[in-house]
Write a structure and sequence with these properties.
Layout lengths: L7 E6 L3 H4 L4 H4 L10 H15 L3 E6 L10 H6 L2 H4 L23 E5 L10 H7 L4 E7 L1 H14 L3 E10 L3 H15 L1 E3 L1 H8 L1
Parallel strand pairs: 1-2, 1-4, 2-3, 4-5, 5-6
Helix pairs in contact: 3-9, 7-8
Length: 200
């Protein structure tokens, strides 16, 4: 399926220092942050293409309140090392979007404390207000936040286009399985080259 420009937004998911930088919290707790870096070039190209084409760019950040009052099971029980590393605390360098993807003035940033970009956030009102019905997804990680967002978007009947080479996961098998799942039941798989060409 061709990727449209009209009624479409680019959703850049969780491209934050904490996930991608060697000094970030995920690297400090032993996660292979370098496995996520391959998503960066594709995300940068997509943002540039979206801006040129007049396609809205929306960013998400996975952030927690100090003290993890909104943390839930992931940082407190499933991966308690996150609390020890003070991972992704709102207002810290760790939680900020990487410098090469700094949002431009007027671009929306959605903060969330769960994998889905829809759960407990203002994303859907933002999309509704702009009459957006198609989403192009890129970012990290493929089978957690990208896939959970794709599932939630698909169930809301958004047309979801997942840019496989602009997503990344700590484990390549999980990356491939997630792309297969999303492309089978929740949307369409595409590439950075295809989206850039469609928006040119």
């Amino acid at each position: 399926m061709d990727v449209p420009k009209d009624r479409t937004a680019l959703l850049v998911i969780d491209m934050q220092n904490g996930f991608l930088d060697e000094q970030g919290s995920m690297a400090r707790i032993g996660m292979p942050h370098d496995a996520l870096v391959p998503a960066l070039a594709g995300c940068e190209r997509l943002v540039e293409a979206a801006r040129k084409a007049g396609v809205p760019v929306i960013y998400t950040r996975y952030v927690y309140q100090p003290g993890y009052a909104d943390g839930g099971l992931l940082p407190t029980e499933l991966v308690p090392q996150m609390v020890e590393a003070q991972a992704l605390i709102n207002g810290t360098w760790d939680a900020e979007i990487v410098p090469s993807l700094t949002p431009a003035d007027g671009e929306v940033v959605i903060d969330k404390s769960r994998p889905s970009s829809f759960y407990g956030t203002q994303l859907e009102p933002v999309l509704t207000s702009q009459d957006i019905r198609s989403l192009v997804l890129c970012g990290v990680t493929t089978n957690i936040c990208v896939e959970t967002t794709a599932r939630d978007a698909g169930q809301r009947d958004y047309r979801v286009h997942v840019v496989g080479d602009a997503c990344a996961e700590y484990d390549q098998t999980r990356h491939e399985v997630a792309l297969g799942t999303m492309g089978f039941a929740f949307g369409w798989l595409t590439s950075t080259d295809e989206v850039v060409s469609a928006w040119a």
